[in-house]
Write a structure and sequence with these properties.
Blueprint (H helix, E strand, L loop, with lengths): L4 H21 L12 E5 L2 E4 H19 L5 H6 L2 H22 L5 H10 L12 H10 L4 H23 L6 H10 L2 E9 L13 H10 L5 E2 L2 E9 L1 H4 L7 H10 L1 H4 E2 L2 E8 L3 H12 L5 H7 L4 H4 E6 L7 H5 L5 E2 L3 E3 L2 E11 L2 E2 L2 H22 L2 H9 L4 H7 L3 E7 L11 H9 L9 E2 L5 E10 L2 E2 L2 H33 L12 E6 L12 H5 L7 E6 L2 E11 L6 H34 L1 E3 L1 H10 L22
Antiparallel strand pairs: 1-2, 1-20, 3-17, 3-19, 4-16, 5-13, 5-15, 6-12, 7-8, 7-11, 9-11, 10-11, 14-15, 18-19
Length: 635
């Protein structure tokens, strides 16, 4: 029977509603606790959306600490943070899936130990605080059951990781090769040739010799590119004679800074608080009888010295504890004393005596400081006026005539540090100035001001012989000496090749024995020792330094000393690092195999939902202090 038009419409609407409900079932993430609870699974282990959100938040915090600025989630994803987090969670889930499969777990006692040792769950007394524990979990949307299960799973995963890594050790072959190279020894002889070693002094160069040197080394005598600049300059020093400060003003400044010149006695201390006076007295007794140390008691409480450091304090700042601490006449431990935070003992590490500097002694420094400050203000107060003059068309020359500014010129280059060019502010402006720029007032590092104008740009060009003659004479003499010494060394090296020994060449000789590659020879050319290690036994070589030539002959090549403690320690370190590297590689392959075996499924809809609702620069990640009790990280 044919359906009526209204019935057909109702039937189609019904079908559409059913389809819509089915479709919406896959988009049920209204929050992180909605219908979609996981972003994926590895085997039978789920990765919850809350777990993913907390891990993302933690990575954002890490980025903020590393770079000193906040990152949105979108910015972090450009670094691949989301993919890294997902991969880490997959690895953790794979390990958890495997520990579940083989029945590996830890008991309640280990979970309790880790909870009690977590710093973030301790109260003022230093002991585990149940309220702090529950508050932290509630703030991070976790139940005690969930968090304790995560400890159990993490610890079991750590045991499994350790089983993989600990069974791998380096063979020692790698470290033996490295140590054999680094520890190899050389015994050699060397002599030095210098100007005194020449048979006759070098002839005095003629003008023709100097001119020839200049002509053949033209690149060494080039005037760098520069800018011809006119400037005006006003420094605080140039106006300081305009500053007048009367005695009453200086006295008022001194009085306002009385705390700086008159400081009370202070102590640099540490404070260790206890839950009861009995506990504080017991600890003090153990320390005073040398049964233990203050540092050891701090460690027993699960604290470090940074946690109890108060820095330098005054008697007044310590309140009721002030008398006990300041009664000590030398560094030491105070008697137990009640404080606002509970019974405590204090360790005094240093005593800083009271200081009192009378006005008469501080006057000269105050006068100089105040005059300099006033001079800088006087200069600064004129910036607007000078800028207005320049904006109105005044030239630098006119500005110098009408104000206290001083006119000057300079051929500025990157290597010029004379006068005003010594200021980085001037050099930066001079480097950037072009013919299109108009002069404006700029500020120097010391509070001075200047303005400049580019008059001409001068390209790099050869200097004249007359300008650099003295430098040419110095350079030519150094080259002539080096050539003479190298010629003499060539003769000596020829003798050594013919069978002579270094000591038979008629020059003072030094013998070095059992030298390693990392030996240090101060005052020698950089390649002095490395050249020796390139020689065959009995061979010789030379290296040239500033006005000197060194000749070295290798006498003995010896293997590394197996009893060298430094090499033994280095070999142990290399083996340990190599074993750890191999172990990490093996663990990565092991975890990858577990993932492949268990199977991985990811819900991109859930991942996108987390991203869409994620705040980007903050959230509810588990604080770092809650991560400390797990016993290790999963890779």
């Amino acid at each position: 029977m044919a359906r009526k038009k209204g019935q057909i419409s109702k039937f189609l609407v019904g079908i559409m509603l059913v389809m819509l409900m089915v479709g919406l079932a896959g988009f049920g993430v209204t929050n992180f606790g909605g219908r979609i609870r996981t972003i994926g699974e590895v085997g039978t282990v789920e990765i919850s959306v809350d777990q993913y959100a907390r891990a993302l938040d933690e990575e954002l915090r890490n980025l903020q600490q590393r770079f000193g600025q906040q990152f949105s989630l979108e910015q972090a994803r450009q670094f691949g943070v989301d993919a890294q987090v997902i991969q880490r969670l997959i690895s953790q889930a794979a390990l958890e899936n495997e520990t579940n499969r083989i029945g590996l777990s830890v008991g309640d006692a280990e979970v309790q130990r880790q909870l009690l040792s977590t710093q973030g769950f301790r109260g003022i007394s230093g002991d585990f605080d149940r309220d702090a524990y529950e508050f932290t979990l509630e703030r991070n949307n976790l139940t005690a059951q969930e968090y304790e299960a995560s400890i159990r799973n993490r610890t079991a995963g750590t045991i499994l990781q350790s089983a993989v890594i600990s069974g791998i050790t380096a063979s020692g072959t790698y470290s033996d090769v490295i140590l054999g190279f680094l520890g190899e020894l050389r015994s050699f002889s060397w002599l030095e040739l210098d100007a005194k070693s020449l048979n006759s002094p070098l002839p005095t160069p003629t003008e023709a010799d100097l001119q020839a040197h200049f002509d053949s080394h033209g690149d060494d005598y080039t005037v760098p590119a520069s800018k011809s600049i006119t400037y005006v300059w006003l420094s605080p020093e140039s106006v300081i004679d305009q500053i007048n400060i009367d005695e009453a003003a200086l006295q008022a400044i001194y009085d306002s800074r009385s705390a700086e010149y008159n400081t009370p006695e202070r102590r640099i201390i540490e404070r260790l608080i206890f839950s009861s006076m009995a506990n504080a007295e017991a600890a003090a007794t153990r320390i005073s009888t040398a049964e233990t140390s203050f540092d050891a008691v701090v460690g027993e409480r699960g604290l470090n010295l940074a946690d109890i450091d108060l820095g330098d304090v005054t008697r007044a700042s310590l309140g009721a504890a002030g008398d006990a601490v300041f009664s000590l006449t030398e560094p030491g431990i105070s008697a137990p004393v009640d404080t606002d935070l509970g019974p405590a003992i204090f360790r005094v590490n240093a005593i800083l005596a009271a200081q009192s500097i009378p006005f008469e002694h501080a006057r000269a420094a105050l006068l100089e400081e105040e005059a300099a400050d006033n001079a800088r203000r006087l200069v600064s107060d004129q910036i607007a006026e000078f800028d207005d003059l320049l904006a109105g068309g005044a030239t630098l020359e006119e500005l110098a005539n009408e104000t206290d500014m001083v006119l000057g010129t300079i051929d500025w280059s990157a290597v010029n540090t004379d006068g005003i060019a010594a200021y980085s502010g001037f050099s930066i402006t001079a480097n950037a100035v072009t013919n299109a720029d108009f002069p404006s007032i700029e500020i120097l590092e010391d509070g001075g001001i200047f303005a400049l104008r580019l008059d001409a740009e001068i390209a790099a060009h050869p200097d004249s012989y007359e300008n650099v003659r003295d430098q040419v004479a110095t350079d030519q003499a150094a080259d002539a000496l080096t050539q003479a010494l190298e010629a003499d060394s060539a003769v000596l090296l020829a003798s050594l090749s013919g069978g002579a020994t270094l000591s038979s060449l008629g020059h003072p000789t030094t013998v070095e024995t059992h030298i390693k590659r990392d030996g240090v020879f101060l005052g020698k050319p950089e390649t002095f020792l490395s050249s020796v290690f390139k020689l065959e036994q009995g061979a010789a070589t030379s290296v040239t330094g500033a006005g000197r030539v060194f000749i070295m002959q290798l006498n003995v090549i010896a293997d590394a000393d197996p009893n060298d403690s430094d090499l033994v320690d280095l070999g142990t370190a290399i083996d340990t690092e190599t074993g750890q590297t191999i172990g990490q590689d093996a663990l990565e392959l092991f975890v990858r195999a577990l993932q492949n075996k268990a199977g991985i499924s990811l819900n991109q809809t859930a991942i996108n939902a987390v991203h869409a609702r994620f705040p980007g620069t903050g959230g509810s990640a588990i604080p770092a202090q809650m991560q400390g009790g797990s016993g290790g990280d999963h890779n």
